[in-house]
Amino acid sequence: MSATIIVGTQWGDEGKGKITDLLSSDMDMVVRYQGGNNAGHTVVIGDKTFKLHLIPSGIFYPKVTCVIGNGVVIDLKVLLKELESLQKEGIATDNLKISSQAHLIFQYHCDLDSAQEGKKEAGRIGTTSRGIGPCYVDKFNRRGIRVCDLYNQKELREKLIWNIEEKSFQINKFYGGSVSYDLEKIMEEYLGYASKIKKYAVESSTSLINQSIKDKKKILLEGAQGTMLDVDHGTYPYVTSSNPISGGACSGAGVPPNSVSRIIGVVKAYVTRVGGGPFPTEIEGKEGEELREKGGEYGATTGRPRRCGWFDGVVMRHSARINGLTELAVTKIDVLSGLDKILVCTAYEYEGKKVMDFPCDLDHLEKCKPSYEELPGWKEDISKAKSYKDLPKNCKKYLDKLSELAECKISMVSVGAEREQIIRSSSH
Ligand code: GDP
Ligand code: IMO
Ligand code: MG
């Protein structure tokens, strides 16, 4: 029983990077299990800020083996850039391992992503345009190209010929684009990447991870995105193309469910969302903008402004249930300091009836109105709080309300972006 999962409980950007980095000091291995460079995980160490897109957030500890798991989709150009920028900062990256089963993103995936977004007449998803969806489509359609294919030139060439033909047809004939792809150039580019990542590639990441479990090592499985962006359990179709939920960790890393003992839900003290799609507690206008500025709510990957809203207890309940959360890590509570009152959505109302379960049908969801409870705010700066008792009474009341709605205990409260700005449950 040695694995811990870190999962986003809302629409992503909850602070998973910070919490992963924090817990990594006590881990032997950190594994990313899904998503790709649509993720942007921020780690702040002293006066340095790192934004990680593909490399696990445990990379700052040389003793921690960091694995990009089989469930991740990799853009090698981005990965190599990320490695280079870490190395420039003096961060050792020899502890990185890349699963040979992970799928690769090619330019045609990015072009297809943008073409699809451009074509949609109504309700653009607002993807990150990183080719994530088209790459997962190829994986499930069994046309994908994996890391292992880079070391078999014949196989790589055959798969590329087929894919180039298919994607060019789709983009040009259906979406009205004008792309052309040069097979030899792509071969040359990717064979170049292949030699650069060879030292990190492992034939069986699942053997590596499971051997660590057998050896009673401590393993952290780092989710990207969040529960409400899950392709099965989120606000479909306004979701990503993978399973960020805790269950996704088992398939995306190849770990058995009974090896997991802790499931930590990362919960932002309010809610944000980037891109399109329903957001019942969204704060419109000036108040929402103020919260965005105060919380620095701009995407770590695309720089897009994040939509901001009040804490949503219905989302929280849905998320706690699906993920089987054993504890919560609440982040960005410091951002709420200074407000006179804070609203918390405890239920939705639909045609005069109380709704406690998150509606799966978007038509139904759109007709739901949030029911709010008003809690008193606090004025004190809490960014230097070291223990629970340092927090103002109203802040503790707010945290108790979040815990009550999630039906789950809080084990960590983050009061600032920096690594040291954390209150652990032992200080409650
Ligand atoms: P992730 O994708 O879940 O890792 O989250 P992001 O890194 O995209 O977004 C979280 C943002 O909030 C980053 O800029 C973090 O540095 C910052 N952050 C994390 N925890 C806290 C906190 O407790 N307080 C404040 N003020 N900022 C935080
Ligand atoms: P982290 O790991 C927030 C959103 C996009 C879009 C939808 C689909 O940093 O929390 P995609 O490119 O995945 O096909 O886009 O998902 N999205 C995220 N939003 N945080 C993320 O990752 C996200 N990754 C994807 O904005 O709405
Ligand atoms: Mg992020």
UniProtKB/TrEMBL annotation:
Gene Ontology BP, a term: IMP metabolic process
Domain of life from the UniProt record: Bacteria
Catalytic activity: IMP + L-aspartate + GTP = N(6)-(1,2-dicarboxyethyl)-AMP + GDP + phosphate + 2 H(+)
Binding of GTP, residues: 12-18, 40-42, 306, 332-334, 414-416
Keyword annotations from UniProtKB, A to Z: Cytoplasm, GTP-binding, Ligase, Magnesium, Metal-binding, Nucleotide-binding, Purine biosynthesis
Pfam families for the chain: Adenylsucc_synt
EC number per UniProt: 6.3.4.4
Molecular function per GO: adenylosuccinate synthase activity; GTP binding; magnesium ion binding
Residues the record lists as binding substrate: 300-306
Compartments, record wording: Cytoplasm
Cellular component, GO annotation: cytoplasm
Pathway: Purine metabolism; AMP biosynthesis via de novo pathway; AMP from IMP: step 1/2
Annotated cofactor note: Binds 1 Mg(2+) ion per subunit.
Residues forming the catalytic site: 13, 41, 139
Keyword ATP-binding set for record: no
Major enzyme class: ligase
Main location, first listed in the record: cytoplasm
Cofactors required: Mg(2+)
Residues at which IMP binds: 13-16, 38-41, 128, 142, 225, 240, 304
Residues that, per the record, bind Mg(2+): 13, 40
Task of the protein: Plays an important role in the de novo pathway of purine nucleotide biosynthesis. Catalyzes the first committed step in the biosynthesis of AMP from IMP.
NCBIfam families on file: PRK01117.1, purA
Family: Belongs to the adenylosuccinate synthetase family.
Subunit composition and interactions: Homodimer.
Name of this protein: Adenylosuccinate synthetase
